[in-house]
Design goal:
heterodimer, A: 120 residues, mainly beta, Immunoglobulin-like, five-stranded mixed β-sheet, three-stranded antiparallel β-sheet, 11% helix, B: 552 residues, mainly alpha, globular, disordered N terminus
């Protein structure tokens, strides 16, 4: 698989410093929309709730589009300490919301929320 | 650089364990100095105990400085690269501020202790201890909790204080026992350290029970989650420590009536207490990487699933074909697709990419076969060691069987890597699990070589005999930090439920052998006899556990 060197390095770096996703320290307790859900195309309110206090300014949401292109999703600045929220506008296709959070105790964890967007 | 960073992923729990160990030794040393070495100075005379204690605590503070700085630096590197933050942005995060405060307190403490030695004033040392503890609690689970945060921060601090007083103070206690010569002083030192230890145990008990109630919450959380299982391992080791500490307490009391009582056992038990304490610190480090049980409401393992998985079955003694494993099969499919499309073939799995490798029934059968043959070899070692203990002379060659185990594991434990798979030897080190397996193979080879020499050579270096107990205990301790990269959380936990007793048996075997070597059989015949039979039985138990191992 031809993975660009920098991307590969960063992925390795991140993956190896983070605990395995299944055993992550901060876990995603609830997401809106839920993982695997189908939603109508158009504006979408994204809301991820964790079991821990999250450092929102040092966390990241990435949208992986159907063509595998990646965009950073701006995270809402305010909100409860355990929630990451954002607003998106999506066209039909299969997407993945990739989250990486820094819990305030310093643990970094990550995971994916796959969603399918259908025609309105 | 890449390799160093990659390796840190595997070592992060180990580094955290070292942080806890050095912090406990530094703070424990300070408290020993302030509460024991200096108040008893007139009685201790010119033994240099206060200076020696300050040196131990000072070097431990330097160790803490290094471990904490490494942790903050590498976490910062990850965040800078993955979230596009500046270093300054990251250093304003709560964990980084806490880490910087910890390193600053540690370097000040080390400077004071190493420069002023036993004469260092108590007040700044105690203030630095309080700062260190407060900062340390800000990188525990408690800091990120949504509920009961204040209470949990307080009990986390109490827990770490208890560990520092009791376990962290033991090296200084051992130093004192080595330098004191008369029974009355032994009794005074032993009695005061016993009282300090009891205060430490009280801190650990109160905080441990509170945290268990708030972090685990139920019996199912205790046996059905990785967090609960690791807490169970900590409790088991804590009970071992209480047993050893209790026997030492009785010996100190005996000194009251007979100042000529031998303190050989006191010293040896204290050494073992410290060793088991280190294992507890690594278990604690392992705990920080998993979510509290109370948060894991799904994917818990039920009692029925545990029982079902552990019903004995005949061992699997024939291996599935290498080509039927998920990765070789997937690689062959990708290669065929590449030929059809005339494209460059994709690699089925990039070690360390963060993706979990695919697994099928053949992979499970492969792993079970490995564990069962390993169980046969380890069981054979245990039996031969027992025979040797019973007086059968030829059985003394039992360590050689471990070389067979090392060769077997080297070839079989990671079939996707060299020499059986397509992934090169060096590339395979990017996979956390492979690194751990290779480390264990190395441990086994070193262990087998030294112990065979010990059993057969006419003259043996006195340090060579300690290789077996130290490696055995270190292997068991490292096994507590071992993880399996399996996507299914329940399967992962069911595997850990087998590995945790293995780790505990390894730790018990190592320290029992330590006692067999270090106790004087004439002064302590009963303790020596028990120790000399316990370690081969622990190895036999490990073999039986491996033979009963199942992944499905």
């Amino acid at each position: 698989m031809a993975v660009p060197y920098r991307l590969k390095t960063l992925t390795l770096l991140a993956a190896l410093l983070l605990p395995a996703i299944a055993q992550a320290h901060a876990i995603l307790e609830e997401s809106t929309p839920p993982a695997g859900a189908s939603v109508k195309a158009g504006p979408l309110d994204l809301r991820l709730r964790y079991n821990s206090r999250i450092d929102q300014g040092r966390s990241r949401l990435t949208l992986i589009r159907p063509d595998h292109a990646k965009d950073t999703i701006p995270i809402d600045a305010d909100g409860p300490p355990d929630i990451l929220s954002a607003h998106l506008t999506l066209t039909p296709g299969a997407y993945i919301v990739r989250w990486q959070v820094l819990a305030v105790d310093g643990h970094i964890t990550r995971g994916d929320v796959p969603i399918t967007v259908t025609a309105p | 650089m890449d390799l160093l960073v990659d390796l840190f992923g595997y070592l992060s729990i180990v580094v955290h364990g070292l942080t806890i160990l050095s912090q406990s030794m530094a703070l424990g040393g300070v408290l020993f100095l302030v509460l024991l070495a200096r108040p008893l100075a007139p009685r201790l005379g010119r033994t240099g105990i206060a200076d020696g204690t300050a040196r131990i605590a000072g070097y431990a503070a330097l160790g803490l400085l290094l471990a904490e700085a490494a942790t903050v630096a590498l976490q910062t590197a990850v965040l800078v690269d993955t979230v596009d933050l500046t270093v300054l942005d990251v250093l304003h995060a709560q964990f980084a501020v806490a880490g910087i405060v910890k390193t600053a307190a540690a370097v000040t403490m080390a400077g004071l202790l190493l420069r002023l030695k036993g004469q260092v004033p108590a007040l700044p040392l105690l203030a630095l201890t309080a700062i260190e503890l407060a900062a340390a609690t800000l990188t525990t689970h408690a800091a990120a909790r949504l509920d009961n945060r204040g209470w949990l921060l307080a009990v986390e601090g109490l827990h770490q204080l208890g560990a520092a007083i009791w376990i962290g103070g033991i090296p200084c206690f051992l130093l004192t026992l080595a330098r004191v010569r008369d029974g009355i002083t032994f009794r005074e030192v032993g009695s005061r350290f016993s009282r300090m230890s009891m205060a430490g145990v009280a801190c650990i008990l109160v905080s441990g029970i509170t945290m268990s109630l708030l972090y685990i919450g139920s019996w199912q959380g205790f046996y059905g989650t990785a967090f609960g299982v690791m807490v169970g391992a900590k409790i088991a080791m804590f009970l071992m420590l209480l047993g050893l500490g209790g026997m030492n307490f009785l010996l100190v009391e005996r000194l009251r009536t007979n100042p000529l009582t031998s303190i050989n056992r006191l010293r040896r038990f204290a050494e073992v207490e410290f060793g088991i304490g280190i294992a507890i610190f690594f278990a604690a480090a392992s705990l920080t990487s998993v979510p509290p049980a109370v948060d894991l409401t799904q994917d818990r393992v039920s009692w029925h699933e545990i029982v079902e998985r552990n019903i004995p079955e005949w061992p699997r003694l024939s291996s599935p074909d290498h080509d039927t494993l998920a990765l070789p099969a997937l690689q062959e499919k990708l290669d065929q697709e590449a030929v059809a499309t005339k494209a460059k073939p994709q690699v089925a799995f990039v070690p360390g990419s963060g993706e979990l490798p695919p697994r099928n029934a053949a992979d499970i059968a492969w792993s079970e076969y490995n564990h069962h043959w390993a169980g046969l070899i380890v069981g054979l070692v245990g039996l031969l060691a027992l025979l040797n203990r019973a007086g059968v002379r030829w059985a003394r060659h039992w360590p050689l069987a471990f070389l067979g185990l090392a060769v077997f594991l080297f070839f079989r434990s990671d079939p996707e890597t060299w020499p059986m798979g397509d992934i090169g030897f060096l590339d395979s080190f990017r996979d956390v699990e492979v690194v751990q397996h290779r480390f264990f193979v190395l441990l086994i080879v070193v262990f087998a070589f030294f112990e065979w020499r010990v059993r057969t050579a006419a003259r043996v270096n006195r340090y060579a005999v300690l290789v077996f107990p130290l490696l055995c205990a270190a292997g068991g301790t490292m096994l507590l930090t071992h993880s399996h990269a399996i996507a299914n959380v329940k399967d992962q936990l069911l595997i850990e439920l087998t590995h945790t007793p293995l780790a505990l048996a390894g730790i018990a075997a190592g320290w029992a052998r330590w006692l067999e070597i270090r106790l004087n059989p004439r002064d302590n015949p009963v303790a020596w006899q028990i120790a000399s039979w316990v370690w081969p039985m622990c190895i036999l138990f490990c073999g039986l556990l491996l033979l009963g191992y199942r992944e499905a």
